[in-house]
């Protein structure tokens, strides 16, 4: 065990295990955990700043994506489908 009382190395614990354990905490303790993690990652610069529409999803969208055109297409298709139903 290390000085924090955790057995093994940092690679022995999975994110799923941490999420499972966090789910067992009281809501107050969960908030404390979130605050601690945010504080840790904000202080060392690990958190990425989300900027603009794409943010962390940048690789998933074409650079020339016309969001308004996509939304209009969805609205038009929905309107047609509703007219067919009525």
Q: Can you describe this structure?
A:
The chain has helices spanning 15-23, 27-43, 67-85. With 86 residues, the chain is an all-alpha fold. It folds into 2 domains: 1-47, no CATH class; 51-86. The longest helix is centred in the C-terminal third of the chain and has 19 residues, at 67-85.
Topology:
Elements: H1 15-23, H2 27-43, H3 67-85
How is the biggest beta sheet arranged?
none
Uncertain segments: 1-5
How many β-strands, per DSSP? 0
Tally of DSSP helical segments: 3
In N-to-C order, the SSE pattern is: HHH
Kindly state the mean pLDDT as a whole number? 79
Give the overall form.
elongated
- How many structurally independent domains? 2
Q: Summarize the amount of helix as a percent range.
A: 40-55%
> What structural class is derived from the secondary structure elements?
mainly alpha
Distance N terminus to C terminus? 67 Å
**Radius of gyration from the alpha-carbon trace, in angstroms:** 22 Å
**Assembly context of the chains:** single chain
Proportion in β-strands: under 5%
